[in-house]
Amino acid sequence: MPTYRDEAVILRTHKLGEADRIVTMLSRRNGKIRAVAKGVRRTSSKFGSRLEPFMVADVQLYQGRSLDIVQQAETLGSYGSEIAVHYERFTAASAMVETADRLNDAEATPEQYLLLVGGLRALSRGEHAARSILDSYLLRVMALSGWAPSLGDCARCGAPGPHTHFVGQLGGLVCTSCAPAGSPKIADGTIRLLRSLIRGEWGAIDAASPSDTAAASGLVSAYAQYHLERGIRSLAHVSDPSREAIR
User: Which helix (H) or strand (E) covers residue 166, if one does?
Assistant: First the structure.
């Protein structure tokens, strides 16, 4: 059908002409969508503010040849305003939507949509440290895309754990025999935190030490960027978790 409706998270926007925008969305049922929102940059626009990054909307679209056209938009989750006024939330949310945008169309599943909506909602409410929400999202989105890190048995040879080397290029924790020369050892607390992050165990995540939080964040960042095969530019602006914990 040429006209359809869906729920969508706004990932990014680009100016088009004098008053229009191209809007990239991650939708619940139709994956990633790129559509033109006509006239949204005019002050008289009725739904321009509903099509800003981090917003969740019920959109009606007309199916075009190359780009669809937004006909209506109703707000489902107004997360952008609460995220934008806090630097650590804004940078974490930026990294999350950039990651969602980097995923292939085939990976844009309903589960990916729900995971992103849940992460943005938690950020807007300040329920947990922004970097921890981001780290949990990155690990879980990688798992949904088929890149779950091994956090028990050796990722290379399958030897049962526990292991103390984490090598993102090899898929997670590896045994001493499989670990490349010079691979650093990971603290037990950091490994436990990685497991909690991928499971969403927020009691353990919130209670983790600043050193384990910082170490886990570095591993998660490197792991995600390696498997996406390109950097996540927004991560350069995300607050250091150890400094955030001190504040």
Answer: strand 165-167
HSE value, Cβ hemisphere, 13 Å, CA-based, for 6: 24
Is 56 within 8 Å of 79 (Cβ atoms)?
A: yes
pLDDT higher than 70, residue 66: yes
Query: Among candidates 42, 44, 34, 43, which has minimal Cα distance to 14?
Result: 34
Outline which parts of the chain fall under CATH 1.20.1440.120: 81-246
Alpha-carbon distances, residue 9 vs 28, 56, 130, 140, 238 (angstroms): 9, 4, 19, 18, 21
Residue ranges, comma separated, of all CATH 2.40.50.140 domains in the chain are 3-78
Architecture of domain 81-246: Up-down Bundle (1.20)
Output the pLDDT for position 1.
54
Helix axes 130-144, 87-102, angle to 10 degrees: 10
Residues 144 and 133: their CA atoms lie apart, in Å, by 16
One-letter identity of residue 143: A
Render pLDDT for 162-214 as a digit per residue (tens, 0 to 9): 999 999 999 999 999 999 998 889 999 999 999 999 999 999 999 999 999 99
* Angstrom distance (rounded) from CA 105 to CA 19: 28
Give which of 47, 51, 49 is closest to 10, Cα–Cα. Answer: 51
**What topology is assigned to 3-78 in CATH?**
OB fold (Dihydrolipoamide Acetyltransferase, E2P) (2.40.50)
Compute the average pLDDT of residues 2-13: 94
